[in-house]
Amino acid sequence: MKASMKVRLRKEPVCFACIMDKFLAQLAGCGPRVQDEFCRRFTAMADVLDEDTTAPALYFEGRKLLNQYIPDTERQVYEPIKLAYNQALLDMEEELQSRLDTAADPLELALKLARAGNYLDVACVDNITADKLCELLDRTSEEALDARVYGLLRTDLQKASSLVYFTDNAGEAVLDKLCVRTIRRLYPNLCVTVVVRGGFVQSDITMEDAEQIGLTQEARVIGSGAALPGTQLRYVSDEVLSAAENADVILSKGQGNFEGLGGCGLNVYYLFLCKCHLFTERFSLPQFSGCFLRELELAEQEQK
């Protein structure tokens, strides 16, 4: 499976158009004159960004511009959704933990459950339903992780002293909590640091969510340093950059983190569902298919 490491704006205009549409939808009540002005300013801003700017970073920069027209609308829209998703998954936690406790390979199941939870992404998925989430969680018993990548992860974890876990969305982070708990039980000497978003953005997990779902009781949790819907090392705090660069193993959840961390050269394992058209085409997979990839393997493929 070969995949480009980054979503580059000038090479992926579909990402630019998707982000533009999201902003224009939020400006719908401001009238066509304001929308036209925003389009011009947004396009001009994007034109001067580095060619390797990722889609999450473009959203981050574009939202600064959007806030000049309608400040802080995201919290009003997404906070009730995040609270509902967090509670829905907390209500499922006991049952899911029971599955893990009786699993033949609890680490494999924990990774698959965490990956299935990546469905809860309101920025990429329209009409999220409880039925579809349950279907994806149930399907984990029939799916397999890439055996080669999984073997490499187990070997790395056995030797590792430190792990950094980059989270993605609220709701699904309950499944990340179960995954972190499973890893710490299997590798008790492993120092685990979990990274959440550095500010409110879309349906992504923040420190508030981490505290609500009890993630802060499972491991050290720190904010990324930016309200970016993904992780790109040029945007993170010095604390997160140091943690990532010194980690023996990194687990990265979600498309946005894949887009931002791709090409970083660190020992990253990516875990996500292919949700948007760009990703289903890139990996030649149906929507909501799972990926489990290793950064170093992908880098070797790109060099060939």
Structure description:
By secondary structure, the chain is an alpha/beta fold. 52% of the residues lie in helices and 10% in strands. The protein has a 6-stranded mixed beta sheet, sandwiched between helices. It is globular and about 60 Å long. Residues 1-11 have low confidence and may be disordered.
Strand order of the largest sheet: 3-2-1-4-5-6
What's the alpha carbon Rg, rounded to whole Å? Answer: 19 Å
Q: What is the number of strand segments?
A: 6
End-to-end separation in angstroms reads: 13 Å
- Spans where pLDDT lies below 50 across 5 or more residues: 1-11
Give the overall form. Answer: globular
Helical content stands at 40-55%
Helix tally? 13
Strand content: 5-15%
Mean pLDDT level: 92
The ordered H/E elements are HHHHHHHEHEHEHEHEHEH
Q: What's the layout of helices and strands?
A:
Layout: H1 13-26, H2 32-47, H3 55-66, H4 73-101, H5 106-116, H6 130-139, H7 147-159, E1 162-166, H8 172-186, E2 191-196, H9 207-213, E3 220-223, H10 238-246, E4 249-253, H11 255-261, E5 268-273, H12 277-283, E6 290-294, H13 295-303
Key words describing this protein structure:
52% helix, 6-stranded mixed sheet, 13 helices, 6 strands, alpha/beta, 10% strand, disordered N terminus, 304 residues
Summary, kept brief:
It contains 13 helices and six strands. By secondary structure, it is an alpha/beta fold. Helix 1 (13-26) runs parallel beside helix 3.
